[in-house]
Specification:
alpha/beta, Rossmann fold, 5-stranded parallel sheet, about 20% strand
């Protein structure tokens, strides 16, 4: 069973995402902080990561994504963000500023979440 790590400070979003992905036969691991995610990556070795851009600090997800890229962990990272709703600015792509493999704008609909998991994990 493929493992998906969901990293977000919103507990309700984590639990809803877990239900959606578990129904598609993915094992879902939840983290509400970057420090918790770092620990789970080492212990659980997920096959994919969904990572929120803004958590405890507005740039936590971006900083963590840069760290993961620098460490070359070889795990696909899909960034999640509602920053467009907050600021009116919509990034919607991965690049040097937002080092990721793909991007989902929040609110995330269940079908989009499943499609991204299938894209990277089958």
């Amino acid at each position: 069973m493929r493992k998906v790590l969901m990293v977000d400070d919103d507990r309700e979003f984590l639990e809803a995402s877990e239900a959606v992905l578990a129904a598609q036969n993915y094992k879902v691991i939840l983290a509400q902080s970057v420090s918790e995610a770092e620990k789970l990556i080492k212990e659980q070795k997920p096959d994919m990561i969904f990572l929120d851009v803004m958590m405890e600090s507005p740039d936590d997800g971006i900083v963590f994504a840069h760290k993961l890229k620098k460490e070359n962990i070889g795990i696909p990272v899909v960034m999640l963000s509602a920053i467009g709703k907050v600021t009116g600015y919509s990034h919607k792509r991965c690049d040097e500023v937002l080092p990721c493999d793909d991007f989902l704008e929040k609110p995330v609909n269940p079908k989009s979440l499943i499609n991204k998991a299938k894209k990277f994990l089958g």
